[in-house]
Amino acid sequence: MRDLFTMILAGGKGERLHPLTDQRAKPAVPFGGKYRIIDITLSNCINSGLRQIAVLIQYKSHSLDRHIRMGWNIFSTELGEYIISVPPQQRISEDWYKGTADAVYQNLFLLDNEQSPYLLILAGDHIYKMNYADMYQFMLEKEADAVVGAIECPLAEATRFGVIGVDEEYRIQRFDEKPSNPMSIPGDPAQAFISMGIYLFKTDVIREHLLKDARAGTTHDFGKNIIPRMIADQRVFAFKFQDRNKKSVHYWRDIGTLDAYWEANMDLVSVDPLFNLYDQHWPIRTYQGQYPPAKFVFAQDYQGGRMGIALDSVVSGGCIISGARVQNCVLSPNVRVEDHADLRESVVMENVVIGQHARIRRAIIDKDVTIPPHTEIGYDREADRQRFTITESGLVVISKGMKVHGPVDSSG
C-alpha cells in the first residue's frame, strides 16, 4: 500500500445539509455522538494500511482543519507518513476548485513530490467500511489503468446516481450520470452498478487526463468527464464493493440531506444497527476530548417522575442526564438535560443545555444551544416553522449557537 498516494475530497459546500454546514464543511459535521463524518473515511484509510493522505479542503474549513490536526496527527513524519489538510494553493490559477478533477489537478505538485505509482481518490462525506487494499489487488489482477468503486443498487433507484455499465469481466463500457434508463448488471436485470465516488488510477495515466481536462471546457468532474473519456482507450474496471461492516446488507450512505443524516444517526441507537461502530477489528478513530464519564442522576425520585434515564440512546462523555428522560437519541459530548425534560428521537451536538420540563422530539440541535425551560419542539409543526428550519418529513433543525426563546407567558 506504500505505492498508493491518497487524496480525500473534502471541499464541497454541503448545501443540502444547511444549516449544519453554515459554519463548517460537510465532512466536519458531527456524526454518531463523538465522531465527525470524515472520521469514517480516514479510519478506512488507516485500517487499509494507507500512510500518505492529503485532505483537500476548501469552504469553511477551519473546524475540519482543526479536527485533522488535533485528532489525526498520529504518524511519524520521519517515516514519510502523514495526514495533512491542503487548502487551494493557487499554484496553477487563482480559481478555487471548479470540480473534483480540478481539485486533484490543482494539487498535482503533491503527486510530483511523492512519485507514487498509484493515486487513490476518496470522498470525505460518505459512511461505509472498505479495505482499499482489496481494490488495489483487483487493479493489479486486471492490469487496469483505472478502477471505480461500485455498489449494487435497485434499477429503479439508480437514476439518482452515476450508473456504471460493465461487461461480464466488470470492464466499464459506459458511465451515465443520473440516466433515465440505467444499464443493469450482466446476469442481474433488477440491479445496476452505481459509482461510490472512489477512484484508483495509475498516476501517469490520470496525470495525462487531468492535463487534457484542464484545457477543455468541461465541468472538471471525474464521473462526468474523466471516466467517460478514459473508457474509450484505457483499461477501466468497476470494483464491486466488498463491505467490511459485517452485516447481511451492504452499507454505504451519502448523508447529503438533513433527513438522511438524521436517519443514519437514528440507525445507531437501534438494537442491531446497520452500521457497526463496535467492531474492534475495524475501529473508527476520532479526536478524543478530555471529558468526564456520562452521568445519570436522581434515580431516587423515580416515583415522582424525576429520574435520569437514557433508553436506546448513544450518550457521549461529559453528558449529564439530570432527572430527565432521553430516548432514541444521539448525544455528543457535554450535553446537559435538566429535571423533567423529555428528549426523544433527536441528535444533539456538543455544549447543548435542555432546560427543565422541555419537551423535544425529532430534532437536530447543533452546538452551543440552550433550550429554555418548558419549551416544546417537534409537537407543533407550524409553530416550529416560524422559528426553525423544518425538513419535508417535519424534522426540526436548530442552528449552531442559535438563541432559542422560551414559551410566551400569556397569563399577564
UniProtKB/TrEMBL annotation:
Binding site for alpha-D-glucose 1-phosphate: Y97, G162, E177, K178, S195
Entry keywords, A to Z: ATP-binding, Carbohydrate metabolism, Glycogen biosynthesis, Glycogen metabolism, Nucleotide-binding, Nucleotidyltransferase, Transferase
Domain (Nucleotidyl transferase) ranges: 6-268
Protein name: Glucose-1-phosphate adenylyltransferase
Family: Belongs to the bacterial/plant glucose-1-phosphate adenylyltransferase family.
Superkingdom as given in the UniProt entry: Bacteria
Record site: Could play a key role in the communication between the regulatory and the substrate sites: Q58, W96
PROSITE patterns: ADP_GLC_PYROPHOSPH_2
Classification via NCBIfam families: glgC (TIGR02091), PRK00725.1 (NF001947), PRK00844.1 (NF002023)
One Pfam assignment: Hexapep_GlmU
MF (Gene Ontology): ATP binding; glucose-1-phosphate adenylyltransferase activity
Catalyses which reaction(s): alpha-D-glucose 1-phosphate + ATP + H(+) = ADP-alpha-D-glucose + diphosphate
Keyword hit for Iron: no
Subunit: Homotetramer.
Start and end residues of each Glucose-1-phosphate adenylyltransferase/Bifunctional protein GlmU-like C-terminal hexapeptide domain: 292-398
EC number: 2.7.7.27
Entry's Gene Ontology BP terms: glycogen biosynthetic process
Phylogenetic placement of the source organism: Bacteria, Pseudomonadati, Nitrospirota, Nitrospiria, Nitrospirales
